[in-house]
Amino acid sequence: MNIKTLIAQGRGPMIEFLPEPEAQALAETIVAFANGVGGTVIVGMDERGRVISDVSESFEATLARSLAMCVPSFRLSDVPQWHIEETSEGAVATISVVHTPYTLSVEGRDVLVRSGRLNVPLQPDQMAQGHLASAVLGFEDDIVPGATLADFDEAVLDEYERNRVRRGPRGESFTRAELLRDAGAVDAAGNPTVAGILLFGKNPQYYFPQAGVLMVRFKGLSVREAATSSERYSRRVELTGPVARLVEKTWEVLFEEIHQQSVVNGLERQESYSYPLEAVREAVVNAICHRDYTITGQRIEIRLFDDRMEIMSPGGLPGHITLDNILDEHYSRNPRLVRGLYYWGYIEELGQGIDIIMEVMAREHHPPPDLRDTGRSFTVVLHNAVDELRERYGDELNPRQIEALRFLKDQERITNRDLSLLCPEVSSETLRLDFRDLVEKGLLLKIGDKRGTYYVRK
């Protein structure tokens, strides 16, 4: 990646500028990147692109001292690569650091991870909880017993390569072997890794049955309420495939569920959805790329109720992340998957998923999402617009009546047929009684008679 591109992207989870070639600061940044998703360090230049220190003579000695501070020593395949780049103001150095499947520290003391624009030390209790244990961090780079290159889907690899070239530095190209190594899909000997099977496998669930998504659309406001119905749920879908296909398939199913109706405003046709599309998309991608794949026997679960969507991802919050600092700090449990989905185009900015969900939900006047961390799982709960009416009317109205009032927020009138399309599983007689109750409560006015009947807000 050239200097101009790095300056344009600015400091962040994968880019750091060190104006002065100072060994301690360089070692800390290298360790933080290696313990995270990797990154690039520019030495001798500040983030505004000004050359502060010509590194042409001192850099190699400084880098050697920095690498000597990294404990344990880098394996040969993981040693940071560097080069000197001449500018009109002097020479600067660019160092590329890859994620390592083992935990690094600075001189055996500080275990650092990259969080936003900072190198953050991990506390002993966080280490003890296994957030940064090598067995977990290295899981993506583990060899998959029995897997061969024939397990990779060539069509998926072709698609990834096109996106990798498009979103990567201009002019970059790869052989197929180089592409697999760059993605961490194979080890030095060419054996498929966990990350490779999850990213490019024809059938990842053969090796990892937990790597799937279960979506259930319940009737009512809770599993208990749904249990009293003759049918507990109206739809149940199990989704499989490599992570990019999993994102696509899950999104397609949820899109069908949250799409409500088409509203004609003048000559313009407008689509209506129960939840902001961008928030749902981010929640799905977050769950797939950040779940703990070492937890077996449990898939990502998405539960849809009348008033909310719950997206449960196996594994608690990773690293040093807590519910208190989740909007300010960033850390990835699966850096290979995160990087892969970034190049696929499903992640626009690393570490910004929850921030985007919060912002979008507020912008579209939805209640803020609930975030729940049990240590064993992390759940994002999105509330739909029904909540606003439910807060106002409490338990006075049932979900169908709430849906009728919501329909009238965008339309001047509603008919029995309109509500039957919104609630297809309910009989016309039940809907007629729902409307009569709304009229008696003084919320609607009934206009017309028999087939010409419609209702308006009072």
Describe this structure in words.
The chain is α+β, with helices and mostly antiparallel strands and 458 residues long. The protein folds into 3 domains: 3-120, Schlafen, AAA domain (Methyltransferase, Cobalt-precorrin-4 Transmethylase, Domain 2, 2-Layer Sandwich); 213-386, Heat Shock Protein 90 (2-Layer Sandwich); 392-457, Winged helix-like DNA-binding domain superfamily/Winged helix DNA-binding domain (Arc Repressor Mutant, subunit A), CATH 1.10.10.10. Helices cover 37% and strands 20% of the residues. The chain has 18 helices and 18 strands. The chain has helices spanning 3-9, 23-35, 59-69, 124-128, 134-137, 154-167, 176-182, 194-200, 204-207, 223-227, 243-258, 277-290, 335-344, 353-363, 386-393, 399-410, 416-422, 428-440; strands spanning 15-18, 39-43, 70-71, 81-87, 90-97, 105-106, 112-115, 118-121, 213-218, 233-239, 259-265, 268-273, 300-304, 308-314, 370-373, 377-383, 444-447, 454-457. The strands form 6 sheets. It has a 6-stranded mixed β-sheet, with helices on one face. Strands 1-2-5-4 form a 4-stranded mixed β-sheet, with helices on both faces. A hairpin with a 2-residue loop joins strand 4 (81-87) and strand 5. Helix 17 crosses helix 18. It is elongated, with a radius of gyration of 26 Å. The chain starts with a helix and ends with a strand.
Features:
458 residues, Methyltransferase, Cobalt-precorrin-4 Transmethylase, Domain 2, Arc Repressor Mutant, subunit A, 3 domains, four-stranded mixed β-sheet, 37% helix
Residues in β-strands, percent: 15-25%
Q: Please, what is the average pLDDT? A: 86
Number of strands: 18
The CATH architecture assignment of the largest domain turns out to be 2-Layer Sandwich
Task: Indicate the CATH topology of the largest domain.
Answer: Heat Shock Protein 90
| Terminal CA distance | 62 Å
**CATH class label of the largest domain:** Alpha Beta
Helix content: 25-40%
Which of globular, elongated, flat, extended, rod-shaped describes the shape?
elongated
Give unreliable regions as ranges. 128-137
Q: How would you describe the oligomerization state of the chains in this entry?
A: single chain
Strand order of the largest sheet: 10-9-13-14-16-15
Largest sheet: 6 strands, mixed
- Please tell me how large the radius of gyration is: 26 Å
- Judged by helices, strands and strand pairing, the structural class is alpha+beta
Number of domains: 3
Number of helices: 18
